[in-house]
């Protein structure tokens, strides 16, 4: 099947066209600055062709229509007509407690996504706008929702219930949900290339480390804990997010600085983390460069960043009752040998031994980077959330036909 995957933000759309029979990404690209005069529509194909157009794109319907026009462009030759697209898979950030797996999009499903606006006010509204826009443009195609939170729906109550009055969970569904589920699920599934035994026998810690970052503890093939919580703010230090802090701290700062709720939210989500500590950048690459220039705050920021990851590894090893594999993925996890080394330093007592030569290899391939003596296997596995969206969409469409 040829599946169009869509990831819709408030002013952007990221897309891929994937042939699930071969795994080939026939085309990928984005639409940026939707609603502005100089919107940017881009595409690159598996044949090495590309095109970028700047024009006015008023809404998501125009954006998706523009994507499809590029797909059938005679110079690019991605597909001959819209009929070549079998289905559309949509990334939806928050599925609440209702959606424990991907599903065919119906009016009832859209209403449930809307009900979860309160849980993900920045993400679910544009996700739904993208769904409705795509349904207008490709009305004869099946549309499937793939939820970031679904993979973590297997967490036990002791992992997801917060130690606040239980009534808040019963009345408002305040609990840990977790995110990056498609990424954690994908890299775990790729371990099949390294083990002959059933993956359900493994105790695995996956580290999705990018500008946004989360970790996941996987046992019996399912998520049993994850670092992000009710929102993506909890857990690790991130590019611009604080991660775990004393909850009373923000109340204290709000009083000191006379901050509004919106200003406090911005402080924690946009001005904290690496950028907040370093005062230089939220990008690990920039900070690594500044460390070479003896920047104290760049080094401090990355020391804190790596230390928090290390602490979660220890916590999840305890929660799992041991660990067989540690997987690094996403932008930083895949590309920063410095971060991987700093995280693994001092964990030899747990059987985590990094092979420094393998760790320093410049490679985009899936690979094992632990020593032969290491009791815990360490991997770098590039993530592919769009592939998860595509295969889930294919599976659900086939089930519907049956």
Automatic annotation (TrEMBL):
Family statement: Belongs to the acetokinase family.
Protein name: Acetate kinase
Function: Catalyzes the formation of acetyl phosphate from acetate and ATP. Can also catalyze the reverse reaction.
PROSITE patterns with a match to the protein in the record: ACETATE_KINASE_1 (PS01075), ACETATE_KINASE_2 (PS01076)
Subcellular location(s) per record: Cytoplasm
Protein's organism: Thermotomaculum hydrothermale
Signal peptide positions on this chain: none
Annotated binding of Mg(2+), by residue: 7, 385
SUPFAM superfamilies listed in its UniProt record: Actin-like ATPase domain
